[in-house]
Design brief:
Layout lengths: L2 E8 L1 H5 L3 H10 L3 E8 L3 H7 L9 H8 L4 E9 L1 H9 L12 H5 L8 E3 L3 H11 L8
Antiparallel strand pairs: 1-3, 1-4, 2-3
The structure holds uridine-5'-diphosphate.
């Protein structure tokens, strides 16, 4: 199976709850390596740009406000089939459908405040990693 990189975000709700370490432990247990990491507070422009594909959705403005409401942790994960396996670890967007043991089932507050982000395809991963990191910040 291919080794893939994916973008992971620990969202403002989870950073406020001080569960960065707990989420990273789950990532390590899932055999995904953290190969780049930074804590940032998004500007409105950065949050809008990151979620540009959702700009016409009714939840867009609230999503942008939430994503800039506090610091986030952005990280690049690497592992076998990494994009899909991290999505499985996160669980679905709708936490009522998330299986116990997934990050969202265990840590999300709501459909919006759902603790974590993960790229949904290899193409998204490439775009999203480049949104936050230059090559010299990624340690393979
Ligand atoms: N979101 C929301 N309301 C919705 C759907 C999504 O606030 O009805 C937020 C939620 O934080 C989600 C993000 O928008 O994680 C991006 O939505 P997407 O459908 O891409 O879900 P994801 O890929 O994060 O599971």
């Amino acid at each position: 199976m291919a080794i893939e990189q994916t973008l992971s975000i620990i969202k403002p709700d989870a950073v406020k709850k001080q569960i960065i370490g707990e989420i990273q432990t789950r990532i390590h247990q899932a055999k995904l390596d953290i190969i780049a990491i930074k804590m940032v507070k998004l500007t409105k422009e950065q949050a809008e740009g990151f979620y540009a594909e959702h700009q016409d959705k009714p939840f867009f403005a609230n999503l942008v406000n939430f994503m800039m409401s506090g610091p986030i942790v952005v990280q690049v994960l690497q592992g076998e089939n990494g994009v899909e396996r991290y999505r499985q670890l996160m669980g679905p967007t709708d936490l009522s459908k998330a299986a116990a043991g997934t990050l969202r089932a265990d840590f999300a507050n709501s459909m919006r405040e759902n603790a974590v982000h993960g790229s949904d395809s290899l193409a998204s991963a490439e775009r999203e990693i480049a949104y936050f990191f230059v090559d010299s910040e990624i340690f393979q």
